[in-house]
């Protein structure tokens, strides 16, 4: 039997069926008041005739187009989705063109559909849109879908349901293709035709009826998305108009008619918020470029305008890597005009240059009038290049400018780090609405978590050599060593598919997290994804996990811990065997990139100032960007072959958003978020996939909230409320750890009932030693010496406190004989920290003592903390010292002793929380105008 032979397909009743189909579609067209659907002629009147005509040329087409035979398709269909993708992408023939012909068999169509759907579900950046567009253009495949659906839901062809499992799979695969094709190209003719056919179904078989309802519901939801008002920004890259305009008035959809519309509205809202949060500080930069004054004085330290820079090409680009093709020459015009030795860059310029990191967005324009704009992302910042004044870039967009090379340009960087905004925005833009993960909790507000889908009542877990049923039992606590609240949190984390655990300061969040991870990886079938907000927290957690498993890989290159460096993905990939088809495809795309790059350079050389030539440049630039995205995707595929063998995959949220499709490849079921309350809601969502079956979020919303670049936007949109906080507060029975093991009881008492209702101290903290040469473990030195501001950026500092803090530190080191590593100086204000550090350097004994802002010390602890609060004025202003979250972090870092300095009268006057804290301090007799020094050698600056 040949590939095209199929008795079902050429049934004697097909003529009658097609006539019925024709009448159905025409009748529906007459009934509709909406836009008329033009159904292809060959689907209706001439369909059977076309089958005959096209069949006669089938053999010739198959030879010239190198169509795959049925055996090859069967072989491909047994592969994993990724292997399907690599196989079809490296074929000599085009897998997406002319593979389906009019007289092809039902099996061939189903196999082809299965392969396309599997690849489509991967949603590979750079390739996904191309695949969807290929399906949208494949009218012959769509004709087959019309006919197959008509037969499946027709009584006369009920025998097709003898292969019920195969038919169910086909309908699901076809639905996936049609939905994603629609979301990529707004193609809706085929969707409406299929719905019309289903509507006239006369097959009342129970299974058939159920599948009919499921398919029609899925397609109707997709079409209804068009009825939602779409104000979603197309991309996060700003235009000139974006940068010149007033802040956007955030709009949302008013019509939420169904689940699909609700998801669309949710994504739309968060895309708007992300773009506006990114744009607001960038608009201030543009105002400075145009007016030479900064609208926000606090930007002065972080903003620098580079003048007379050049964008230059690597003359050896054909032999260069992708990130070494285009550079910014910071010396630019000066390098070009000097014949003799080029002057060295100033120290200030070098410092600014070295702060620019990979992933930053750079903006260029030819003049302060800002009539044109070039946007580029930083791709390469090697030390050798930076010393010479070069930064590797990739051009992202250009507006109102043709020739961009070797001409003097103004350059500045975006104040907000671009990469996380870009990655999360693109995920939200491209994610599949129909498979939105955990939407019952995130969007629909369900507060009663179900059990993870991979768990059954029969599931048995191994834990430390013991067996237990995770839904009904717990392992021996002698092994776990958890307190009652930790044990309850452990149990919920295992058996709730969406678990949230609050861990106040010092309550053993990390210890609990390690026990949860240890138990899960011992029983999980896929790698566990561990995501943290900061690199420091991630490294700290991975170090603890590495004590019981070496099967770890860390993504990202910002680790500072030598114990973790060996797990870095880059180093691991270099020593791994890689799929040869992937190597071939990467080589093919690399050549495609260089070809696209050459074409772009040709367009620049041929630019004559005309609008047509400018459009050619934009098209060439767009193509280059698309190929670059393919290469980034393939690079992550190399990493996939390493990651799939690991038990734990660790990364920060910034890294996770850009590798979301890696999680889809891995089909990872479990995602754990550390510091979850510090992560923006959209960043959490961007780490989930349709394969996610279990989410565990561990954090504390009463400590630091997510960072946003603009306070006004934060207040208007509540963007600083994390997903953790939003859902935790609405949970009817939230779980919080209650016993703290960090702070001396006097210190912990400051937080009890002021910040936390049920916080209690473990007996062990009562045994902490007294602080040498100090009469108490806790003290607040109050004063009324005025704060001050710097002239250029209005940043706050308090010189009196600087002196007192440094003198106390000197006493603790020289007289009390504490090691500098035992002491941490904190302040809420960066300028105060700068001044303290300068003073510390004047004392040899204190030069290695650490001082940092309160925010940057979140999640860390020290034996002794000296806290400088700065604010002291007659205008009753204490700024963000009113915020309970920052008060909480500031007062919860110390273990053995904490010594604060500030204007306690002012703080209590401006904040009810500080008023309660003052009452507790006075109960402990811990307030005075001098630190309680037990030494005659201590110096006071009066």
Overall description:
The protein has 942 residues and is of the alpha/beta class. It contains 37 helices and 25 strands. Residues 1-12, 28-64 and 252-257 have low confidence and may be disordered. The N and C termini lie far apart (103 Å). The chain is globular and about 100 Å long. Among the domains are: 14-227, no CATH class; 304-337 and 344-414, Elongation Factor Tu (Ef-tu), domain 3 (Beta Barrel); 739-928, P-loop containing nucleotide triphosphate hydrolases (Rossmann fold), CATH 3.40.50. Helix 13 runs antiparallel to helix 17 (418-430). The strands form 6 sheets. A 7-stranded parallel sheet has the order 11-12-10-13-14-9-15, sandwiched between helices. The chain has a 6-stranded antiparallel beta barrel with strand order 1-2-5-4-3-6. This is AAA+ ATPase domain-containing protein. It comes from Stomoxys calcitrans (Stable fly). Residues 720-904 form the DNA2/NAM7 helicase-like C-terminal domain.
């Amino acid at each position: 039997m040949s590939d095209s032979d199929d008795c079902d397909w050429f049934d004697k009743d097909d003529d009658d069926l097609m006539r019925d189909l024709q009448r159905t579609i025409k009748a529906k067209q007459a009934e509709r008041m909406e836009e008329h659907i033009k159904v292809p002629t060959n689907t209706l009147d001439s369909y059977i005739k076309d089958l005959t005509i096209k069949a006669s040329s089938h053999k010739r087409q198959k030879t010239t187009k190198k169509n795959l035979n049925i055996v090859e398709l069967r072989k491909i269909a047994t592969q994993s989705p990724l292997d399907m993708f690599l196989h079809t992408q490296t074929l000599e023939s085009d897998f997406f063109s002319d593979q389906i012909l009019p007289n092809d068999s039902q099996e061939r169509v189903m196999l082809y559909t299965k392969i396309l759907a599997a690849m489509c579900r991967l949603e590979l950046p750079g390739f996904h849109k191309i695949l969807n567009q290929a399906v949208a253009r494949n009218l012959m495949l769509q004709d087959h879908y019309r006919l197959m659906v008509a037969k499946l839901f027709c009584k006369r062809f009920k025998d097709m349901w003898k292969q019920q499992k195969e038919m169910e799979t086909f309908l699901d695969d076809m639905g996936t293709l049609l939905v994603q094709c629609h979301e990529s190209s707004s193609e809706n003719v085929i969707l409406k035709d299929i719905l019309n056919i289903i509507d006239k179904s006369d097959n009342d078989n129970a299974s058939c009826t159920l599948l009919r309802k499921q398919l029609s519901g899925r397609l109707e939801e997709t079409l209804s998305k068009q009825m939602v008002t779409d104000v979603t920004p197309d991309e996060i890259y700003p235009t000139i108009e974006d940068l010149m305009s007033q802040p956007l008035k955030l709009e949302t959809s008013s019509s939420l008619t169904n689940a699909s519309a609700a998801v669309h509205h949710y994504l739309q809202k968060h895309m708007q918020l992300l773009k506006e949060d990114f744009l607001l500080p960038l608009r201030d930069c543009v105002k400075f470029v145009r007016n030479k004054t900064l609208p926000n004085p606090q930007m002065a330290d972080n903003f620098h305008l580079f003048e007379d820079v050049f964008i230059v090409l690597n003359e050896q680009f054909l032999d260069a890597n992708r990130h070494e093709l285009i550079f910014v020459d910071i010396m630019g015009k000066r390098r070009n005009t000097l014949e003799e030795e080029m002057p060295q860059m100033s120290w200030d310029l070098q410092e600014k240059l070295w702060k620019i990191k990979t992933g930053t967005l750079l903006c260029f324009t030819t003049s302060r009038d800002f009539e044109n704009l070039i946007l580029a992302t930083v791709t390469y910042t090697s030390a050798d290049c930076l010393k010479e004044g070069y930064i590797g870039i990739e051009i992202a967009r250009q507006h109102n400018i043709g020739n961009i090379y070797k001409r003097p340009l103004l350059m500045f960087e975006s104040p907000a780090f671009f990469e996380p905004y870009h990655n999360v925005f693109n995920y939200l833009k491209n994610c599949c609405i129909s498979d939105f993960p955990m939407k019952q909790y995130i969007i629909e507000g369900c507060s009663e978590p179900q059990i993870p889908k991979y768990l059954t009542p029969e599931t048995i877990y191994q834990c430390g050599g013991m067996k237990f049923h995770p839904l009904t039992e717990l392992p021996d606590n002698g092994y776990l060593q958890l307190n009652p609240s930790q044990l309850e949190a452990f149990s919920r984390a295992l058996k709730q598919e969406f678990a949230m655990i609050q861990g106040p300061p010092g309550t053993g969040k990390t210890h609990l997290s390690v026990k949860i991870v240890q138990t899960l990886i011992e029983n999980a079938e896929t790698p566990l994804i561990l995501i943290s907000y900061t690199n420091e927290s991630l490294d700290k957690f991975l170090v603890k996990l590495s004590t019981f498993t070496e099967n770890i890989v860390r993504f990202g290159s910002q680790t500072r811990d030598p114990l973790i460096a060996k797990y870095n993905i880059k180093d691991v990939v270099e020593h791994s065997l890689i799929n040869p088809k992937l190597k071939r495809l990467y080589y093919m795309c690399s050549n495609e990139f260089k070809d696209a790059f050459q074409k772009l350079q040709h367009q620049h050389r041929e630019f004559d100032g005309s609008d047509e030539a400018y459009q050619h440049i934009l098209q060439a630039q767009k193509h280059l960007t698309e190929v670059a995205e393919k290469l980034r995707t393939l690079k992550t595929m190399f990493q996939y072959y390493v990651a799939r063998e690991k038990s734990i995959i660790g990364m920060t949220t910034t890294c996770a958003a850009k590798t979301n499709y890696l999680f889809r490849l891995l089909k990872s079921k479990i995602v754990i978020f550390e510091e979850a309350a510090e992560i923006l809601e959209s960043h959490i969502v961007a780490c989930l996939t349709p394969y996610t079956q279990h989410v565990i979020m561990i954090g504390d919303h009463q400590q630091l909230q997510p960072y946003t670049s603009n306070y006004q936007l934060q207040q208007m949109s509540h963007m600083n409320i994390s997903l953790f906080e939003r859902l935790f507060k609405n949970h009817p029975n939230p779980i919080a750890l209650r016993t703290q093991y960090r702070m001396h009881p006097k210190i912990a008492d400051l937080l009890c009932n002021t910040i936390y209702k049920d916080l209690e101290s473990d007996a062990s903290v009562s045994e902490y030693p007294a602080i040498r040469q100090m009469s108490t473990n806790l003290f607040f030195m109050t004063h009324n010496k005025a704060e001050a501001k710097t002239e250029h950026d209005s940043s706050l500092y308090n010189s009196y406190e600087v002196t007192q803090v440094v003198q106390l530190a000197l006493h603790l080191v020289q007289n009390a004989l504490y090691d500098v590593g035992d002491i941490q100086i904190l302040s809420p204000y960066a300028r105060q920290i700068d001044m303290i550090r300068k003073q510390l350097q004047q004392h040899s004994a204190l030069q290695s003592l650490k001082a940092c802002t309160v925010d940057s010390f979140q999640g860390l602890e020290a034996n002794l903390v000296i806290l400088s609060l700065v604010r002291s004025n007659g205008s009753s202003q204490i700024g963000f010292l009113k915020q309970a979250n920052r008060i909480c972090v500031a007062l919860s870092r110390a273990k053995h002793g904490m010594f604060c300095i500030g204007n306690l009268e002012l703080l209590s006057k401006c904040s009810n929380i500080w008023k309660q804290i003052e009452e507790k301090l006075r109960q402990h007799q811990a307030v005075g105008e001098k630190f309680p020094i037990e030494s005659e050698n201590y110096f006071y600056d009066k």
